[in-house]
Amino acid sequence: MQMPVIEEHLEEIVERCVQAIETQGFPDAESWKRAVPGRAIVGCFPVYSPVEVFHAAGMLPVGLCGGGNRMEIAHADSRFQSFVCSIVKSTLEQGMTGVLADFDALVFHSICDPARNLASVYRRNFPGKKIEYIHFPQNFEAPEATVYLVREYARVAESMSELTGRSVRAEDLQASIDTYDAVRRLVRQLYAVRSDTPHLLSTRELYSLVRYGYLVPPEEHLEVLTRALAALSERQGRPRDRVRAILVGSFCEQPPIDLIGAIEDAGCYLVDDDFLIGRRWFVGDVSRRSSDPYLALAQSYMDASVSTPVKHDLRVSKSAALVERARRHSADAVIVLCAKFCEPALFEYPLYRRALQDAGIPHIFLEFEEKMWMFDRTRTEIETFVESLLFA
Ligand code: SF4
Fold first, then answer.
1. Which residues, listed in sequence order, are joined to residue 365 by a DSSP beta bridge?
2. If you write DSSP's letter for every residue of 40-84 in order, what string do you get?
3. 292 with 149: CB under 8 angstroms?
4. % of the chain surpassing 70 pLDDT
5. Atom 3 (ligand 1) nearest CA
6. Which residues, 6 or more positions from 31, have their beta carbon under 8 angstroms from its beta carbon?
7. How confident is the model over 283-318, as pLDDT tens digits?
8. Kindly report the CA angle at 252 between 247 and 256, in degrees rounded to 5?
9. Which among 121, 250, 343, 368 is the best mutation to test ligand 1's pocket, defined by most ligand atoms within 8 Å of the CB?
10. CB contact at 8 A, 338 and 345
């Protein structure tokens, strides 16, 4: 019997994603794990993590995004200095309050000192949990760096296999790469739709659709994105008089969703951003780079990944890349929205500022933290900025 076609509105799909994101804890991941013996969950701290390797080992890679604005920090404050970003503290708080009890492993990466310290604090405080730390290459010009990264991925694959009893064969990794490539292709399509027709897809919606993939298996995310694109193709609307802006600086800790909405409501079409950039890391399909899946992943990291402040590729000027992005998306302005105390973002900002000034692209600098509840001030600042551009 042929199943009836169930038509959904994009609003319904997005609302389900928002509900999953705002649910405290990780019920979807925990149900997935309990459904079949031998499954394991790995929590991936931002920014980029080789999720394909974990997926191929039989794990569900869950993206950690901190505790949001509903988590009270009661224990983690005593383990970190006061001048540390929110995500580091709230991620530790999640561990100390049992939110991550079902997680079998956590992975951290060489993005900054606070993330490195968090990995050490976890290792010391949670001896029963597997804590992995991936050192990404710092020298992109050395040919040895790719070889090193292949070995690093193989090391982590072996380590994770100890948890699931399933070693990572080349064909498993290839299948996982194909799945995540398919997800990334759909995300790229959604990003292109938003850049071309931002009145049809808000950033709040796009963000929710992408972030849902941090919580569920990629196969399920693929289905949701496919339905979202189908629903989006039915949408109609007229563009409004707004400023086209690209937003950078939120590549690790994520601002509250309502803050993203407040920026849009203040008169901006956000036509590009670096939210959740770790799951959009590659600029093309990984599988095309090599028939050896480990090499394909490593080469993609080295030669076909995005420019961000946590990747130290001296072959590419990050400021020049930002100006190029602004031009490619026909942006009128840039919003630099950084997590409070985020060292990589704050170190990059003076270079961004100079490049944007030289290129004649207006920008505004704002900070956020997870605990924000009120967005009136940010909204007013953006409104003033937008008015200065629209009525100049
Ligand atoms: S928000 Fe910035 S400082 Fe904090 S862990 Fe992320 S990259 Fe590091």
1. 336
2. EEEEE-SS---HHHHHHTTEEEEEP---GGG---SSGGGGS-TTS
3. no
4. 98
5. 342
6. none
7. 999 987 889 999 999 999 999 999 999 999 999 899
8. 65
9. 343
10. yes
How many C-beta neighbours within 10 Å does residue 170 have?
12
For residues 52 and 173, the answer to whether their CB atoms sit within 8 Å is yes
Ligand 1 centroid, distance to 344 Cα (angstroms): 7
61 sits in which H/E element: strand 59-63
Place of tokens 């629209």: 390
Domain ranges of the chain: 26-162
- Select from 81, 111, 312, 341 the residue to mutate for testing ligand 1; criterion: most ligand atoms less than 8 Å from CB: 111
- Alpha carbon 7 to its chain centroid, in Å, reads 29
> Is the minimum distance from the CB of 252 to ligand 1 under 6 angstroms?
yes
Question: Taking the domain 26-162, which CATH number applies?
Answer: 3.40.50.11890
87 lines ligand 1 (CB under 6 A): yes
The residue whose C-alpha atom lies closest to atom 2 belonging to ligand 1 is 342
The answer to whether the beta carbons of residues 260 and 207 sit under 8 Å apart is yes
**Residue 252 Cα to ligand 1 middle (Å):** 6
Q: Are 305 and 283 in contact (CB under 8 A)?
A: yes
> SS3 of 310, please?
coil
Distance in Å, CA 256 to ligand 1 centroid: 16
pTM: 0.95
Closest C-alpha residue for ligand 1 atom 6 = 252
Q: What's 27's DSSP letter?
A: H
Q: Are 130 and 59 in contact (CB under 8 A)?
A: no
For residue 118 and ligand 1, the question of a CB distance below 6 A is answered with: no
What is the rounded (10 degree) CA torsion for 186, 322, 279, 266?
-80
**pLDDT per position as a tens digit, 134-158:** 999 999 999 999 999 999 999 999 9
Q: Is 17 exposed, middle or buried (0-12, 13-18, 19+ CB in 10 A)?
A: buried
Give per-residue pLDDT as tens, 176-211: 999 999 999 999 999 999 999 999 999 999 999 999
